[in-house]
Design a protein that fits this description.
Rossmann fold; 7 helices; single chain; 5-stranded parallel beta sheet; two-stranded antiparallel sheet; alpha/beta
Amino acid sequence: MEKILLLEKDSEIREKIINELGQDYDFESASTVEEAREKLRDMSFDALFFDADLPDGNGIKLLREYRLKGLKTPALITTTLPKDKVYSLLSGTNSICLIKKPLPNMAIVKRKIDFTVKMETEEIREKLIETLNRLNKHHQPETIWKIF
């Protein structure tokens, strides 16, 4: 079973995700950037599921920090932030999937998680990230948004 770090400030959303998808994934949850840092220090994960806006920081900035340290774990980002702000924040994070809040039904969330954690090789991830970055450089953020 894939292990996922779920970083979400809203306890109701965390509980909903864990209750509805916990039979498919092994979730470790955190509600703050500091909690997530501790878990990232102590454990390894198959995927990261980060909220962008947190009480003590930003999930996207935390992801960028760990990317700079060499962490290549695939990541999903959830956010209520406007698209233009999200695109600029995501630059350089190699995120695989973006989910706009409010979250869609859990079947859609599960499909996005499946897509992310089932990417079996680094080569496939790198090719996807390269394609997304190329699309972003050509100012086609709507295309990136619709991929997922």
